[in-house]
Every structure is written in structure tokens, then in C-alpha cells.
From TrEMBL:
ABC transporter domain mapped to chain residues: 10-234
SUPFAM superfamilies: P-loop containing nucleoside triphosphate hydrolases
Pfam families recorded: ABC_tran (PF00005)
InterPro entries, per database record: AAA+_ATPase (IPR003593), ABC_transporter-like_ATP-bd (IPR003439), P-loop_NTPase (IPR027417)
Protein name per its UniProtKB record: ABC transporter ATP-binding protein
Upper taxonomic lineage: Bacteria, Pseudomonadati, Pseudomonadota, Betaproteobacteria, Burkholderiales
Keyword line: ATP-binding, Cell membrane, Membrane, Nucleotide-binding
SMART domains referenced in this protein's UniProt entry, alphabetically: AAA
Organism whose genome encodes this protein: Ottowia testudinis
């Protein structure tokens, strides 16, 4: 078990949960000790949405401890609820307009910023005076994103926020996430769209087999892993460093342990995701135990 951090916004210790007899999480540990944007990755069915619901207090752990800003989420204390917002993948909006939604719903969030809400709606091209029933799915999703961001809660959980958004809207979403008003929040975003958020994510969480197999700051990852494209076999890293390769047209994209004589480069999330999916144990073994707590060092 990872030592508990008293300052962590999110602190999960030895969490166990399953919907039926089959456990989904068994002794799951994760900490978000500092504000920032955390990307939550994992295969379909790995438990990302379930974890977000456990953190929001919508599900009850069968064992272990979940704390969010010091609160036990399942108790649903009023003070806790004013500090967290969850945007689920599927949501219901009352048949109001964005500008009237705030009259009924913003009061639950003491730091709700009406000016920011108007600004976010404008950036995302959401008509502020159109009823939700007359909006497209993507427009409704963008209105819900604008509301979630405007709550300014210290903790924000978002489940697949860019699903159903067009290419321009995805870029606008990324711009909003990079704005300074999000910087003091702990934002946990479950996504399969690694490209959408690559430049704004500060931390990566990767779930597999009921465990957090990778939890690391992006910047720290690039100190250990290196990625690139080789036009032929002579440009590939040596077998002792190479962790993953895949064809890209006539070339090969690759992931390797970083060579000590090279500068840390950019982490390409999609490539990292595939390397983790296809060669998990080798990739994790290339990282320190603080980032990959479940990895076993190679013999
Ligand atoms: N209400 C439920 N009742 C029973 N089983 C459920 C329920 N919700 C989810 N599950 C199961 O729990 C597992 C994890 O589901 P979850 O939705 O958390 O995964 P996910 O990582 O978010 O998946 P995806 O990437 O496909 O959205 C899946 O096997 C799913 O079938």
C-alpha cells in the first residue's frame, strides 16, 4: 500500500469493488497529491467510469478507503458535494436553456463563475438561449462541459468528455482545459482520445486488471522513456532498449528506454498506450517503482 498523503485531493487505499461476485478492483491504490490534469486511461471495461463514480460517492466500495479532499465520498456530505463535480459519459439535462440552468443548478457550487460559463459557451459555440431539447447531442455535451468547468470545484471528474464532439470542438475543449483558471483544480479525465488532451495532461493514470499499473507525471515519464520514428531497421534503438514498435507507412514508430546520452523528448500518449497494452511488463519494468507500483523488476 502506498503511504497516505494528508494533502492529497484524491487518496485511494486498498480499494475493493465489484458489481457482482467478480471483483473489478482488489487492493487498488491511487493518489492525486497535487492539482493538475490527470488522464485516466485503460482498455474498455477496465473500470475507469466505475472509479470516477466511486470517487464521486455514487458507488460504495466493498473494502478499502477512498478519500477526496479528506471526505469519504459515499457519505455525500454537503461540504464534499460542493467541492466536486462529475460529468458522466451519459447525462440528463432538464429542458431548460443554458442561461436558465445556472439559476437552478449553480447555487450548489459556491465558486460557480457565471462570467466564465458565458465565456465557455461562447468558445464552444453553444447557443445560450436555446432549450436543451432543441440542441444536438454534441451541443448538449458542450453545454454540460461549460457548466462543469464553470463550477470551479477543486475536484472535477470527467468521463469521456470529448466523445461526440467534432474536431473543432475538441480543439476548443483542449484550449479551455489549458486556461489558467483550471490550474488549481484536480481534474481527472477518463478518455480514449489520447490526441485530444496530449498537450494539457500533466499526469497519466493507466488502469489494467483492477490495478493502477502506471501513475506518473508526464514530465517524469519522458525521463525514462523515449519515442520516435525510424525509417529503417538501422535507426531503431537496440534490442536491449526497444520496448515496442509498429509500422507507420514505410516507417516504424517505436518506444524504448531512454538512452542516457539523449535529452528527454515528448511523450506520445497513443504510442505509450499501445506499448503498455502489448508489452506491459517490459514497459513497466523500465520505470521506477514510484510510477509503476505493480511492476516486478526483470530477473
Ligand atoms: N451497473 C453495472 N452493473 C454491472 N456491471 C457493470 C455496471 N457498470 C459497469 N459494469 C461492468 O464493470 C466493468 C467496468 O466498467 P466501466 O464502465 O467502469 O469500464 P470503463 O473502463 O469505463 O469502460 P469503457 O472504456 O468501455 O467506457 C465492465 O466489465 C462492465 O461491464
Amino acid at each position: 500500500m502506498t503511504p497516505s498523503s494528508p494533502c492529497a485531493d484524491i487518496d485511494v487505499q486498498a480499494l475493493a469493488f465489484g458489481y457482482g461476485k467478480q471483483p473489478l478492483f482488489a487492493r487498488f491504490d491511487a493518489q492525486a497529491g497535487q492539482p493538475g490534469i490527470y488522464g485516466l486511461f485503460g482498455r474498455n471495461g477496465s473500470g475507469k467510469s466505475t472509479l470516477l463514480k466511486l470517487l464521486a460517492g455514487l458507488l460504495t466500495p466493498s473494502a478499502g478507503q477512498v478519500r477526496v479532499r479528506g471526505h469519504v465520498p459515499r457519505r455525500r456530505a454537503a461540504e464534499f458535494l460542493s467541492q466536486i463535480y462529475i460529468l458522466p459519459e451519459e447525462f440528463h439535462l432538464p429542458n431548460l436553456r443554458p442561461d436558465t440552468l445556472t439559476r437552478t443548478h449553480a447555487a450548489f457550487y459556491p465558486q460557480f463563475d457565471h462570467a466564465l460559463f458565458g465565456d465557455y459557451l461562447a468558445v464552444l459555440d453553444v447557443p445560450p438561449r436555446q432549450r436543451f431539447a432543441q440542441m444536438s447531442l454534441g451541443q448538449k455535451k458542450k453545454a454540460a462541459i461549460a457548466f462543469a468547468l464553470a463550477t470551479q470545484t477543486p475536484v472535477l471528474l470527467m468521463d469521456e468528455p470529448t466523445n461526440g464532439l467534432d474536431i473543432v470542438s475538441r480543439a476548443q475543449f483542449k484550449t479551455l482545459m489549458a486556461r489558467p483558471e483550471q490550474a488549481c483544480r484536480t481534474v481527472l479525465i477518463s478518455t480514449h482520445q489520447a490526441h485530444d488532451l496530449e498537450s494539457v495532461l500533466q499526469h497519466i493514470w493507466f488502469i489494467d486488471n483492477g490495478q493502477l499499473v502506471l501513475g506518473a507525471p508526464m514530465a517524469a515519464l519522458s525521463a525514462h522513456l523515449q519515442m520516435g520514428v525510424a525509417s529503417d531497421a538501422t535507426q531503431l534503438p537496440g534490442a536491449e532498449r526497444l520496448l515496442y514498435q509498429e509500422p507507420v507507412g514505410q516507417q516504424s514508430a517505436w518506444v524504448a528506454r531512454r538512452a542516457s546520452d539523449t535529452e528527454p523528448g515528448l511523450v506520445q500518449l497513443e504510442l505509450l498506450y499501445k506499448a503498455l497494452s502489448f508489452n506491459k511488463s517490459a514497459v513497466l519494468a523500465a520505470l521506477p517503482a514510484s510510477m509503476a507500483p505493480t511492476a516486478t523488476a526483470p530477473a
